[in-house]
Design brief:
1193 residues; mainly alpha; two-stranded antiparallel ribbon; two-stranded parallel sheet; 1% strand; globular; disordered C terminus; Otoancorin; Stereocilin-rel
């Protein structure tokens, strides 16, 4: 019955009486007009047709067009027919086996191994070991004649036989080959005794065959030793193509299950969460089938004697099962914990096996962790359980500690290293309090590891000077700002800036970032250039103002060449263009392996071009400065190698650069062959970097032949869609082509979980209407996989949320496990987010989701705030029943962090003065308070610290964002130290407040505009916008030149930007002379240009404009830009163009901007129609047998 059903599926497409192709409902419609010679064959279909194959094969060599299809069919008939018998439906396809083998062989080429000669291979295949024991020698010859054509297809391409295709004459030799899979283990053992050259290619060849054999149900004929041999040979498949782990046998006996799980455990770290869950589910099913003769599957299987459904009480999770699944335990459902026999979990925990199994587990859902923790705790009395605190692993994140001794607290702290601090900070602080209950020492603090960052500054202030000095020798600690200030003060005593020596600064090492800029200027070259490691440690946590101060001190008595060679990354990136030009850089050796800023990279790339020393593979971070013009200048003969070099370090490339490289490459390829993409081969496709492939136009994607589907899916699974604009039409085209490849020969309803996993990030782009056509279990799996998507198209979200609720039910009834599994999809809809239950467990589940959310909606923040405040205490909940204005506590304020902005003004008003004082550091770090909240908080500040006019520096630094509630007159009198502005600038200041803050800083720090040096300009941050036009005119041109590259995006009003632009003209010359590097440095200041100045800019500089600056250009200025200038904006900048700016553009300008915003690599405008290209499939296996005669004509 099962075989018949599969054959029906394979023949879903058939010819009707008119000779046309019929397709069944749910299939993606085929375009039978072309590429009829390609198909995706399942092993079961091949085996079911093997009686027909010999007769058909007699015809195949007649046509050179048969190409890869002939190879697939020949291999299917000659090699894999015995590997995978007809009764399995979940094993790798022939296409998979061939493609993976070739992919692994290509790695041998990459390693530089030459292809082994036929003579050398013959000696291996004809080994006496292989022909011993009655094995016929012609079996090894058959294998050799199968292997050599695959090898030659990679290494001996000719004009007659392009790369990736099998010569037709080789197929003639292959057609009669028959190879028994029982022969494979002996072959593997022989290969291992071969030379490295032969071994690499042969191991690549047999690896996918070994996995297909090991994952087939016919493994009962293998001994345990032979099965281990197969699995060890197949391991490279799981490491390089982790999706192969989805092709697991439907049934496997107990002993081989244990062997299989040993292999799967060895590749655990390379699998994603979905793959790990599938392995666990598969292992659980095999265990119940073997041990209880039942099934956990919801749909009965089609065996002659279907297995009965397991009872809910089946105890499958015994000690053998626990040992077998190892780290896959982290994928258990909370309900699985109840499936363990009494006492089993206790023994598993106390023996240390649990701790060992989860040592490589990086995350565990809170619902499972808490269930396991509860089960383990029930094994002991509270005091007894504390003996095992060092065996908790990830469960420690959810352990509630009370009355622990200092030693036990240390034990538990050691287990919290893998926990996210947002979940465990409250626990960590309680434990630290236990550890440091007496006088603290440097050793006690070192024992805390990373947790030392949670020690209150007040306790650090009690350390002796000797202990502080000892403590500072540990460069690995990331201290908080307040801790650094405390330790610096403790170390230097009452020394003023003028009294600090370079040696004093060097002694501070990792807390040097707690020094004021005036002290950092005391560092001299002789102090640090001989100890660059100390300089690296010191600069790690410094802000830009401090880094600039260090450079100012070092630059006085050191050559720029020495500085360029020895400065660590943070300091190097603060070197101004002015000084970089003086550094005498003349070779790639001086710039590679360093991390440069974009502006520095732009200067250096241009410099290397002028010196004719551009080597794209060696440029590394300098690639940021490569222009489209440089890419256009590359010779066609070097172009492919160049774009491959660019793609090796995608982190340094912008969308603009990728778009230019893709357009240049595609144009070159199509000049070489006009129908390049229509007739592209596997190896040609493989040669195009994934990064560039994403920029194919929809037409090119549509034209890709089915023969490259394997390579296409492989590349899409590894592609980073973040490098493609969100509204790029190629996203839809790539998605449709991937689905087309997956559904050749099958309906969407026939796709398996393994198929879906092959989509990789393309799954995130799949329309919900397509998902809904899949089988129920595949829909569920797909949605769980999509919960990891970083981005889902906006238009898909309503239907996707609807599909989620149809599949899993109303969010109001969800369990913790379901929220943790699919929750990110529900968070796409505000109403569905609000509907999630306010259950006690919800806080931990949302905190778990929070860790991986790129953007948190207001609805999510509100939901988290509700459950966090509701969970604060049961007594607080009872009080809320009588009083709706619950006052925040210090502990809750600290826990909520930035979400403290969600308290109502009346709730904040109910806060006691003591709570405010205890939590002022946290409250002061929150931007975005409403005017009502600021009124309340500023009133609290006056109650606690006294009148604004009498507040001291310490109070003002703590208040930070709360100071936004003061009047402009009060702001102007605040004692604000210059070095505190880096954090103060993060608050949402109004433009009208900025001048008052500048006046306060100038007064308190004795600053005047004319005396501002480069360090002060950088340190002022956004408050630089507070200078008046008269003060701007007084600024030092030299200081501005030195500072501007390190100044952040200045969010100044337009009139201030125009004044700063005038300063830039005075400093650097007329805008028509501005370079890419300078424009990158000027950032928002470029928005101060007038229409004539903007129109005079060189077009090449526009891709180096800062994204944030684009909306700041007045519409009339933006409209003055030529199409050539707009053409160089690039996708990211084009996406920032406002509706007001668009309205001022001509139709031609608007077309350019629209095309750029989609990231199109073509210079022509995209088609006006937004309709998706029709999805097509080619005729499948049965149709090909009927049509093959036509193809051979």
């Amino acid at each position: 019955m099962q075989k018949h059903a599969r054959n029906q599926q394979c023949h879903a497409t058939s010819l009707n009486k008119t000779g046309q192709v019929d397709t069944h409902p749910g299939q993606i419609q085929p375009d039978v007009g072309r590429r009829q010679n390609d198909t995706h064959l399942s092993l079961s279909a091949l085996v079911s047709e093997k009686e027909k194959a010999p007769n058909l094969l007699k015809l195949l060599p007649m046509s050179p067009k048969a190409g890869t299809w002939l190879f697939v069919l020949a291999v299917a008939c000659s090699v894999v027919a015995t590997v995978c018998p007809a009764e399995t439906s979940n094993v790798m396809s022939v296409d998979d086996v061939v493609f993976i083998g070739k992919k692994l062989m290509m790695k041998c080429q990459t390693k530089g191994y030459p292809a082994p000669s036929a003579t050398l291979m013959s000696s291996v295949f004809n080994s006496s070991v292989l022909t011993a024991g009655g094995k016929p020698a012609d079996q090894s010859n058959s294998l050799l004649s199968t292997f050599l054509p695959v090898l030659n297809s990679l290494t001996a391409a000719t004009s007659k036989n392009p790369p990736g295709q099998i010569p037709v004459e080789a197929l003639e030799k292959m057609k009669s080959n028959m190879w028994n899979c029982s022969y494979l283990p002996a072959m593997i053992r022989t290969i291992r005794n071969s030379s490295e050259q032969v071994k690499c290619y042969m191991e690549a060849f047999v690896a996918p065959l070994s996995w297909a054999t090991a994952a087939s149900p016919s493994t009962s004929t293998f001994s345990s030793a032979d099965y281990d041999t197969l699995l060890s040979a197949a391991r490279s498949v799981l490491l390089d193509v982790s999706s192969a782990v989805m092709n697991l046998p439907a049934t496997i006996d107990g002993q081989k299950l244990k062997q299989m799980m040993i292999t799967l455990r060895s590749v655990y770290s390379t699998l994603n969460e979905d793959q790990r869950a599938e392995v666990l589910n598969w292992a659980r099913e095999q265990i119940v089938q073997n041990n209880f003769s039942c099934t956990l599957k919801k749909t009965p299987n089609s065996k002659p004697k279907p297995l009965a459904s397991c009872k809910p009480t089946v105890k499958w999770l015994d000690s053998d099962a626990l040992n077998m699944i190892g780290p896959f335990l982290s994928s258990l459902q909370p309900t699985d914990v109840d499936a363990s026999p009494q006492g089993t979990l206790c023994a598993y925990f106390t023996s240390g096996q649990f701790s060992s199994s989860v040592s490589g587990v990086t995350r565990m859902n809170p619902s499972l962790a808490k269930m396991l923790l509860q089960s383990f705790q029930q094994c002991f009395s509270p005091n007894e359980f504390q003996k095992y605190l060092d065996k908790l692993g990830p469960l420690a994140c959810y352990y509630s500690a009370s009355n622990l001794t200092s030693d036990l607290s240390k034990k538990l702290l050691s287990q919290l290293t893998s926990c996210d601090s947002s979940i465990t900070s409250k626990l960590e602080k309680a434990l630290i309090k236990n550890v440091l209950s007496g006088p603290i020492t440097a050793q006690a603090l070192r024992d805390l590891g990373r947790n030392v960052a949670l020690v209150p500054p007040k306790q650090l202030a009690t350390l002796s000077s000797a202990d502080v000095k000892d403590l500072l020798q540990n460069p690995g600690v990331e201290w908080s700002r307040s801790q650094m200030f405390t330790l610096v003060k403790k170390q230097l005593g009452g020394k003023k800036c003028g009294e600090v020596l370079g040696a004093d600064v060097m002694a501070l090492q990792s807390v040097a970032a707690g020094l004021p800029s005036c002290a950092l200027k005391k560092l001299k070259a002789q102090d640090v250039l001989a100890n660059t490691e100390a300089l690296r440690n010191m600069s790690k946590q410094m802000n830009k103002g401090q880094l600039k101060a260090v450079l100012e001190g070092l630059g006085g008595n050191a050559s720029l060449s020495d500085l360029m060679e020895k400065l660590p990354g943070p300091l190097l990136r603060c070197v101004s263009l002015t000084n970089l030009k003086k550094a005498n850089i003349t070779s790639l050796d001086q710039v590679e392996n360093k991390t440069w800023s974009v502006s520095q990279a732009a200067y250096l790339a241009k410099k290397m071009r002028e010196l004719n020393k551009v080597n794209f593979r060696r440029l590394k971070s300098v690639l940021q400065g490569v222009t489209c013009k440089m890419i256009a200048e590359v010779n066609d003969s070097q172009l492919l190698e160049t774009v491959q070099a660019l793609a090796e370090t995608p982190q340094w490339l912008s969308k603009t650069q990728v778009r230019c490289a893709a357009g240049r490459l595609f144009k070159s390829l199509e000049q070489k062959r006009s129908d390049y993409f229509r007739n592209i081969t596997e190896q040609e496709l493989a040669a195009i970097p994934n990064l560039l492939l994403l920029y194919m136009t929809p037409e090119k994607v549509k034209d890709l032949p089915d023969s490259v589907c394997q390579a296409f899916l492989d590349k899409m699974a590894a592609a980073d869609l973040n490098s493609l604009p969100l509204n790029a039409p190629s996203r839809l085209a790539l998605t449709q082509r991937a689905l087309l490849c997956l559904t050749i020969g099958k309906n969407l309803s026939e796709l398996t979980k393994a198929d879906v996993l092959r989509l990789g990030p393309i799954l995130c782009e799949t329309p919900p209407s397509r998902l809904a056509l899949m089988a129920p279990d595949v829909i569920q799996f797909s949605l769980q996989a999509m919960a990891s998507c970083q981005s889902i198209p906006q238009l898909h979200r309503p239907d996707l949320v609807r599909l989620v609720t149809q599949t899993f039910g109303s969010p109001s009834n969800w369990t913790a496990a379901l929220v943790e599994s699919v929750g990110p999809l529900i968070l796409l809809d505000d109403n569905a987010t609000s509907a999630l239950p306010n259950a006690p467990w919800m806080k931990d589940s949302l905190a778990f989701l929070k860790l991986n959310l790129i953007r948190m909606s207001d609805a999510f923040r509100k939901k988290y705030f509700e459950v966090a405040t509701a969970a604060a205490s049961s007594s607080a909940r009872r009080r809320r029943a009588a009083n709706s204005t619950t006052a925040p506590t210090a502990a809750l304020i600290e826990e909520l962090g930035l979400d403290n902005v969600l308290w109502t003004a009346s709730q904040l008003d109910g806060m006691s003065d003591g709570t405010f004082l205890a939590a002022v550091d946290t409250l002061g770090s929150v931007p975005g308070y409403s005017p009502d909240q600021l009124v309340v908080l500023s009133k609290k500040a006056v109650q606690v610290f006294g009148p604004v006019s009498q507040m001291n520096e310490s109070a003002v630094v703590q208040l930070r964002c709360i100071a936004q509630g003061f009047s402009n007159a009060d702001l102007a009198g605040l004692p604000l130290p210059l070095d505190s502005l880096d954090e103060v600038a993060l608050c949402g200041w109004k433009d009208s407040q900025i001048p008052s803050v500048w006046r306060a800083v100038a007064k308190y720090n004795n600053l005047t505009a004319s005396l501002l040096d480069s360090t002060a300009m950088v340190t002022l941050n956004r408050f630089f916008c507070g200078l008046s036009s008269g003060e701007i005119s007084q600024l030092s041109v030299n200081a501005f030149r030195e500072a501007v590259g390190s100044m952040d995006n200045l969010p100044c009003p337009l009139d201030v930007l125009q004044q700063l632009k005038q300063l830039a003209v005075s400093s650097f010359g007329s805008p028509d002379t501005w370079t890419e590097a300078l424009v990158s440095d000027l950032r928002n200041i470029t928005a101060g240009l007038n229409a004539n100045e903007a129109a005079s800019l060189d077009p090449s500089v526009f891709s180096f404009l800062n994204q944030a600056s684009i909306p700041l250009f007045p519409p009339q200025v933006f409209a003055a830009l030529s199409p050539a200038q707009l053409e160089n904006l690039g996708p990211d900048n084009a996406a920032m163009v406002t509706s007001g700016q668009r309205a001022a553009l001509t139709p031609e300008q608007l077309r350019v901007v629209n095309r750029l915003a989609t990231g199109s690599a073509d210079s022509q405008a995209p088609p006006q129609s937004s309709a998706a290209p029709a999805l097509r499939v080619e005729a499948v296996f049965s149709a090909l047998f009927l049509l093959i005669g036509l193809l051979l004509l």
